[in-house]
Amino acid sequence: MGVPPPLKEWENRIMNKLYSRKIHIIVFLLPALILFCGVLIAPIGASGYFSLFDWNGLGEKTFLGFANYRELFTSDEIGFLKALGNSLLLAVFSVFLQLPLALGLALTLGKKIKGERLFLSVYFMPVLISTVVIGQLWLKIYNPDYGILNVFLRSIGLEKWTRIWLGTKQTALGAVFVPTLWQYVGYHMLLLYAGVKSVPPELREAAMLDGASDRQVNRYIVLPYIKPIIRISVIFAVTGSLKSFDLIYVLTNGGPLHATEVPSTLMINMLFLRNRYGMGSTIAVMLIILCFGFALLISAIFREED
Amino acid sequence: MKKILCILLAVCLVFGLAACGKKGDGKTHLKLWCIATESDANRPAYLDAIADYEAAHPDVKIDMEAYENESYKTKIKAAMMGGSSEDLPDIFFTWSGAFLGDFVDAGKVQLLDSYYGPYADAIPEVMLANTTYNGGHYGVPTTFNIVAMYANMDMLKEVGWDHVPETYEDLIACCDALVAAGKIPFGCAGKETWCVTEYLEPIIIKTIGYEALGKIFKGEATWNDPDIAKAVSTFQDMINKGYFDPAGIALGNDEVKANFLAGKTAFYQNGSWNTGEVDDASFKSAVALFPVMNSSRSSYDQTIGGPSDALAVCASSKNLDLASDAAIFLGKEICHYNYLNAVGLPAWIPDYDTSSLPALMVDIADIVAKCEGMVLFGDTAMSADPANTYLSYVAQVYGCEIDGEGFVAGLTKDLG
Asked: Is residue A43 situated within a structural domain?
C-alpha cells in the first residue's frame, strides 16, 4: 500500500524547503560536529600544542619548538625507533599471517558448511573477551614453571625447548605477538565473512556452470568482489598494530629490557612514569601521523591495483 | 492514563537527578583515594582507621576509593593535572619524596603545619622529613618500612643452617649449600623493577654506606664511585651463580612472594610490609638485613627504608580544615593498625598495647632500633624522570645487559 499522493507532495515540499536553507543543514549537523571536534580534533590539537613544550604536567611549561621531535628520533634512551620497529613487525605479521588466516576461515565458513554459526561464534569469542582476561590467560600459559606450554614441551621430551617466554629478550616479542594476533583473527574473519556472504549467488553459480573449481571461484569471483573489505581489514590491521597497547601492557609492560616496547607503552611511560608530558604528547602526535599516513598509503596501493 | 504515567516518570526523574547532587544522609562527605585494594595488606588498617574516625565524628563520612598501585599513579597525576576540585579527592594517598614534591611545587597540596599542633609529641620530627618541603609539613606518614631479608628457616635447616647468615661469606656458603641441594636461594620479580632495587640498593648501601648513597639519591654526589661498580658486580655474581630463580625475570612481585611463601625459594628480600604474610607462612621464618660488603664504608646496621607512604590533603578541597584534621587522625590510626597487623613499622610513637605483635615484627623493630642510618628507596627519593632512568639501568643490571662499570658510567652520564 503506497503513501497517499497529497502527503508525499507535502513531505517533498518540506524537505526541499529544508535543503534549500543552509542554516537548517548547519543546525542539524552542529551537534555531531561539536562532538567530533570536542572528542577527536581538540585533543589532537592539544597534543600537538603540548608536544612543543617541556612540561611535567603540573608546573610551568617551557617552549622547546620541535626539540622533542628531534630527541624522539635521535635518543637511544627513549628508544622510539625500536618501539616503532616492533609495531611495524607486528603489522607485517598481522597482514601476512593474521589476515590470510582470517580470510581462509571466512572463505571456508562462507561455503555454508555444517556448524557455520557455531564456528563463527567460537572464532569470534576472543574478540568479545576482555583483553586483561586474555592477558592473564596467556600469562598462565607462558608461566615458566606451571604454564601449559612448558609443561607440554616437557611431557613430549622437548625440555631443552622450554623457555622463560616472556622474560627472555629473544622470545618475549614473539610470545607477545601470538596472543595479539590470535585475539583479532575472529574480528577480521567476521569482516571478511560478511563480504563473502554478500557475493551474489548467481555469480558463483555461473562460474560453477562454466566448470570453475572452488579455488577458482574464490580467486576470480570472491576475492575481487570483497577487495574493498580486504582493504579495510588491512588498514585496521596496520593501524591496530601501530596503536597496540593493552595486551602488551598486561603481558610484559614493554619489558624485558624494552624488548616488547611499542609506541603506546612508551607514551604511557613518558606521560605517567617520567612526568614528561611534552614528550608523551610528541609520541601521541607521531602515532596519529603514522596511522593516517599508513591508512592513506594502503588506500593508494589498493587504488593503484584497481 | 499515558499523561499521568509521563508526569510520574518526569517527577521521578527530577527527584532522581536532584539526589545525585546532594548526599541524602546530611553528613559531610570526605573523599579519600588510596591504594588499599582488596588484595593490599594495608586495607584492614584503612578500614579500621576510617571506622574509628567516623565513630569519633558522627557528622562526617569518609568515602574511600582504592585503586591498584600502578594505575593509581596514573590516576592521581591525571586528576592533579585536571585540577578541578570535583575531580580531586579531599585526602589522597601519596609516596613521599619527589612524588609528593611535584604536587607541592605545583601548589596542589595543603600545608599541614598548623594542624600538627595537638600531635607534636606523637610523631618524631625525623619521621616527617620525607614529606617536608621548604620547611613545611605537607604529608602524614601512615607507616614506616625498611628492606628486610626474610628467610625460610626450614629450608635453611635442611642444608645445615640454623640461623640467617649475617656475613657475606656465610651468605655465599649458605647459598652454595642450597644450590648444591637443588634449592633456589632467592626470588626477584624482574617484571617490576622496584623489586630488583630491593636487592641492589641494600648491596650498594652495604658497600658505600648510607651517607654516600643518600647524597647520590639527592643529587648531591656523583654516581661515579668505583665501589658502586663492585656492588653491582657482586649482585651479578650472585645471579650468575644461580642464586636467583631464573623464572623471576618474567614474574611480578606477587608471584615471587607466593613462591617464597610456598617454599620454592629460601630467601625473599623486600619491604617490611610483608612481615604479616611471612609470619603467617607454614614454615618457620626469620628476618635479617643483607650482610656488609665493605666494612670500611658501611656497617650491618644500615639499611634502605624510611617513612614513604603518606596521606596528603588536596589544596582544592572544599572542606580544608576538616580534611586536614581527618588526614592526620587517619594517618596516625592507619599507622597504629598497620603495626599491630605487622604490615609496617610505626612512624608515630605507639601509645597502645603492642604485646600481641608477631615475633617477626618485633625482630624488625629491634633491627630498626639498632639502625645507625637509612636511605629512602631510590625510586621514591628521586623525581620521576631520573628515577625511571635509574630503574632502566637497574633492569639492565638484572638482565646482565650491562656490568658494574656500565651501570656507573651510564648513570654518571645521564644523572651526574
From this structure: yes
Distance of residue B408 Cα from the nearest chain A Cα, in angstroms:
16
Shortest CA gap B198–chain A (Å): 18
The pTM score is 0.84
Q: Is B68 on the interface with A (CB under 8 A)?
A: no
Give the CATH number for residue A115.
1.10.3720.10
Determine the residue of chain A that is closest to B395 in CA distance.
Answer: A257
pLDDT tens digits for B205-247? 999 999 999 999 999 999 999 999 999 999 999 999 999 999 9
Which residue range forms the structural domain that includes residue A270?
Answer: 80-305
What sign for the dihedral angle of Cα B121, B126, B127, B131?
positive
**Structure confidence by residue, pLDDT tens digits, A21-58:** 788 888 889 999 999 999 999 999 999 999 999 998 88
ipTM, two decimals: 0.79
Q: How many domains does chain A have?
A: 2
Residue B31's SS3 state is strand
Cβ distance A255 to B191 less than 8 Å, yes or no, reads yes
Residues A123, A267 share a domain: yes
Q: For residue B146, with 0-12 CB atoms within 10 Å meaning exposed, 13-18 middle and 19 or more buried, which class applies? A: buried
Which residue of chain A is at minimal alpha-carbon distance from B411?
Answer: A77
Of the candidates A77, A167, A273, the beta carbon closest to that of B250 is on: A167
Contact yes or no for B53/B323 (Cβ under 8 A): no
Task: Check if the beta carbon of residue B305 is closer than 8 Å to that of residue B272.
Answer: yes
Q: Residue B170: what residue type?
A: D
Interface test with chain A among B191, B196, B401, by most A beta carbons within 10 Å: B191
Instruction: Tell if the CB–CB gap between A255 and B190 is shorter than 8 Å.
Output: yes
Give the distance from residue A128's alpha carbon to the nearest chain B alpha carbon, in angstroms.
23
What's the CA angle centered on A177, arms A175 and A181, to 5 degrees? 130
Residue range A184-193, pLDDT digits in tens: 999 999 999 9
One domain for residues A14 and A112: no
Q: Which residues contact A15 (CB under 8 A, 6 or more apart)?
A: none
In the Cβ-directed half-sphere of A149, how many Cα atoms lie within 13 Å?
Answer: 17
Contacts of B100 in chain A (CB under 8 A): none
Q: CB distance from B250 to chain A under 8 Å? A: yes
